[in-house]
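Dear Dr. L.,

I hope this message finds you well. Following up on our conversation about the binding site, I have prepared a predicted three-dimensional model of the protein together with glyoxylic acid. For your records, I am including the exact sequence and ligand specification that went into the calculation, followed by the structure tokens. Please feel free to forward this to your student if that is useful.
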Amino acid sequence: MTSRAQLAQHDVVEGVYLSASLDLPDIFGPETETRDGIRLYRPEDVPDPARIRFALAWNPAEDAFDAYPNIGLVQVIAAGVDGVLSNRSLPKHAVVARVHDKEQAAIMAGFAAWHVVWHHRQMGNYIAAQQASRWDRQTVKILRPPSAVTVGILGYGLMGQAIAQTVASMEFPVLVAARSPRQDEGRISCISGPGSVEAVAARADILINILPLTDATQGILDAGLFARMPKGAALIQLGRGNHLVEEDLLAALTSGQIGGASLDVFRQEPLPADHPFWSHPMVFITPHEASITSAPAVIDALEHSLEQIQAGQHPSTAVDRKTGY
Ligand code: GLV
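The resulting structure of the complex is given below.
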């Protein structure tokens, strides 16, 4: 029997929460309880592992899937699926689906725009001035008009597009590195294909990373890329921790090649208390919270994936397990 046929077999489809880092039942339990067609269990409460047809997952433990021979769908609770695709126990034939949520993209775009303003207007200076009760009008001295500040964006999926539109609406020229060619649109220009990341970085006064993490993008934010950027450029890192070579960023901040960084994701999360980023005056840290998907949106996505599978279709938000997005 195929996994898809197994999924279609029961009226109420049973699934399991799998995460080593988040309390998924706590976050999603109240919402799933309102849905008639699905039942989700914590692993320790699963009555019969063979009846489990799907998992709702976020960074599951390496052996998390081993107990469930009939999982046909792994619905990830977020946009990025690297933490599931790299899992050694992920069933070979399971469909892995992600969340594709416009509201999540809008929240991300607002967050990115806030950090663009933070770097563009050098807002840290105001915090320092306020602490010293100092009325220090500096915009007249330092402000470059937005039209003279290029914002580069690495990654042009749902999130990258939302960020590009928001930032372009603030009059910044936007240059995006995209997988496939795109028409230029207003202030948004696109570079695609090999070398596009380097070409965008070379012109970016503020560089935003929102790429998916794949074998090809591991460590992409490194000394070589920073060296191509205009001196004093800012980095806004919203992708995954493993995109960034952290020592290279520290060195580029010390040399002044990078003038400031906003970091939301890290190689080790939570970021260890003794990490040099915490106390670095040019680093702004947030704890992997640039955006969020609401519980109803995640469970809608899960139900939609299940419905598509039950109808014999490939879920529209399924990822290509080979390319990783
Ligand atoms: C968050 O990290 C996401 O992948 O959506």
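In brief: The chain has a mean pLDDT of 95.

With kind regards,
A. P.
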